[in-house]
Specification:
Oligomer: single chain
Strand content: 5-15%
Shape: elongated
Largest sheet: 3 strands, antiparallel
Mean pLDDT: 91
Number of helices: 30
Distance between the termini: 106 Å
Number of strands: 19
Low-confidence stretches: 403-408
Length: 607
């Protein structure tokens, strides 16, 4: 045992303690002292177990106290630091790190000592003085022993000059987390589930991406840059997977309008490359899974694509081009229908991701499309009736071309929907082998009863008519025969009030907007429908009370009606309303037209 005893200071590294013992006992450098006590200097520099144990034995310092302040090698470039397995990259060696303010205090007390925290690459700010640690690179063969007396020759005024030059800054929250964890404290759940090095590395890399962008070259970053990045990244990783995903998905949105097809390497750049091609860190940890999932949830890739070490079993996303190729469809028509179905936005970039199932559902509808021009043949009826079926929602349109663009909107119908409507009508009909007096086609019966043909269709579907027949050898609506007398008898009941188109026309609004107002019921700005039911209450006929329509017209107005009333252009009306700061009760984004309270007509705006 070495006498007299030199106390071990709890925050110093074993190598620093050995240097202080050398100066105290033999007045020489640490290499000579180590040789004197039978320890190979290179073993002590490498923190080998035997060298640390010998130092503990001679100094009477508990081995556990020395172990706690040193990274013990457990394999090639791997170390055990307070129970955490870290690699050489986690340590500052061969550089010597120090705080000039700490050394100035040491010079006034018991002599200089190296703090064990200075050996950690994540520790870049002195927690006591809140200034950046300084770094000295290895230059001589003896530098691995980090003897501060020799590595930092500055004293007095020179040392004070170093202190004065340092800019004060707070300790990075990532540094605080790492030190607290090594001191046995519990931290954020996701970070604690990673190894310490995985937690630190993932946090710093994410911070680099967020703060410096995907094009940043990692070797060009300074220690201060890494320190700042760690703090930025910690704001996300401390919130676990949700915080990480939020940051990565925000990065995707930056490329939302990019031309071409930006992949993971372009989108995440340095972050992706450091994780995908890591050499120093064999297993980057759970950050790989999160990044992989974010990539596969946002980038369209074919099945069997390898993503960060795992093979994508099947395609999860399509682009318009890949979906069109898979389904053998024209990409322009498909894109228009996808826009109309709200699967992709109008003018979506080529790489816009489409969920596979939803995309295939729309594609199957495109394959089943019957174009409006062909609808009379498909239904075996006249064109006016097909228009009325649209108007009353007995069939629903599939829009394509350029939805919302006047004069260019086209529409079609899903052939399955046509088959379903015809099937319901035929299910109500008995068999008729030949034409007979007293039974006529639907259009003829409507003419005789002075009702719209679609009203007769409603009568059939609602079970109002007892005499409905299907003429053999004919298909579609044109195959039906009904009794015009019976139609006339039910006409009054089935036409009570206004038809939807009559109501919408009175309000001077398109039918699509009118139906949206119906769908909003019972909100204040909406249209209530009076539903007429017959023997089959599964089918309802939509009618509107004239008083409801009149009240709506009295209470609410849109720019086109104002313009017509005052002989102005619609744009001029909208401009005057905006300049006065009058906001719509229901705006165009929600319903398709701006609706205002009709009381705006009382203002001196349009005269």
């Amino acid at each position: 045992m070495l006498l007299p005893n030199l106390p071990f200071i709890l925050d110093e590294s074993p190598l620093s303690y050995a240097s202080r013992l050398a100066k105290f006992h033999i007045g020489d450098e640490v290499v000579a002292f180590l040789k004197d006590i039978g320890v190979k200097p290179q073993d002590m520099a490498a923190n080998k177990e035997g060298a640390i144990a010998r130092l503990a034995e001679l100094s009477s310092v508990p081995l556990g106290e020395l172990h706690a302040n040193v990274a013990i090698p457990v394999g090639e470039r791997r170390y055990d630091l307070r129970g955490e397995l870290v690699t050489a990259e986690f340590l500052t060696n061969p550089h010597t790190m120090f705080c000039p303010a700490c050394l100035a205090e040491d010079d006034e007390e018991a002599g200089r000592r190296g703090r064990w925290l200075w050996t950690l690459s994540v520790v870049r700010t002195c927690p006591r003085h809140k200034i950046p640690l300084m770094r000295r690179a290895k230059r001589k063969w003896a530098d691995p022993f980090h003897e501060l007396e020799r590595r930092v020759p500055e004293r007095g005024e020179q040392l004070q000059a170093l202190i004065d030059e340092a800019q004060h800054r707070p300790v990075s929250p990532l540094q605080e987390y790492a030190v607290n964890r090594l001191n046995g404290k519990v931290g954020p759940e996701w970070l604690d589930a990673q190894s310490l090095e995985q937690a630190v590395r993932a946090t710093e890399l994410l911070g680099v991406l967020l703060e410096f962008g995907p094009e940043q070259k990692l070797p060009e970053l300074t220690a201060d840059d890494w320190d700042h990045a760690g703090g930025v990244g910690f704001e996300c990783t401390s919130r676990g997977e949700a915080g990480i995903r939020e940051a990565l998905e925000a990065q995707f949105r930056k490329f939302a309008d990019a031309s071409g097809t930006p992949g993971a390497r372009k989108t995440f750049g340095c972050f992706y490359k450091a994780i995908a091609y890591s050499k120093s860190l064999k297993d980057p940890g759970d950050i790989v899974r999160i990044l992989r999932e974010v990539i596969t949830e946002n980038i369209a890739m074919p099945g069997e694509t390898k993503v960060l070490g795992e093979t994508l079993c099947e395609r999860q996303l399509h682009t318009v081009a890949s979906l069109a190729k898979e389904q053998n469809l024209d990409s322009r028509t498909l894109a228009d229908v996808l826009v109309a179905a709200s699967v992709i936005p109008e003018n979506a970039p080529a790489h816009y991701p489409i969920p596979v199932q939803k995309g295939r559902e729309v594609a199957s509808r495109v394959k089943r499309m019957v174009h409006v021009i062909s609808l009379p043949n498909a239904l075996a009826c006249a064109r006016p009736l097909t228009d009325q079926l649209f108007e009353e929602r007995l069939i629903t349109p599939i829009y394509y071309g350029k939805p919302g663009t006047r004069g260019h909107t086209q529409k079609a119908v899903d052939c399955e929907e046509i088959a379903m409507l015809v099937g319901k009508l035929h299910a109500r009909a008995g068999k008729l082998n030949a034409e007979t007096d007293g039974l006529v086609p639907i259009s003829k019966a409507a003419e005789k009863a002075k009702v719209r043909a679609v009203t007769v269709v409603h009568m059939v579907l609602g079970g109002f008519l007892g005499r409905v027949f299907h003429l053999a050898g004919k298909d579609g609506v044109g195959a039906l025969r009904v009794d015009p007398v019976e139609v006339k008898r039910h006409a009054t009941v089935c036409t009570e009030g206004l038809s939807p188109m009559a109501a919408f026309s009175a309000l001077k609004i398109p039918k699509d907007i009118g139906w949206r107002l119906v769908d909003r019921c019972p909100e204040e700005l909406s249209l209530a429908v009076h539903w007429i039911t017959g023997p089959d209450d599964a089918h309802r006929i939509p009618r509107l009370n004239p008083e409801v329509v009149a009240n709506f017209k009295r209470n609410f107005i849109h720019p086109a009606r104002i313009a017509e009333h005052h002989g102005l252009q619609v744009g001029e009306v909208v401009g005057r309303l905006k300049r006065r700061g009058i906001r719509p009760v229901l705006n165009k984004a929600e319903i398709g037209v701006d609706f205002y309270r009709a009381s705006v007509l009382d203002l001196d705006l349009f005269t």
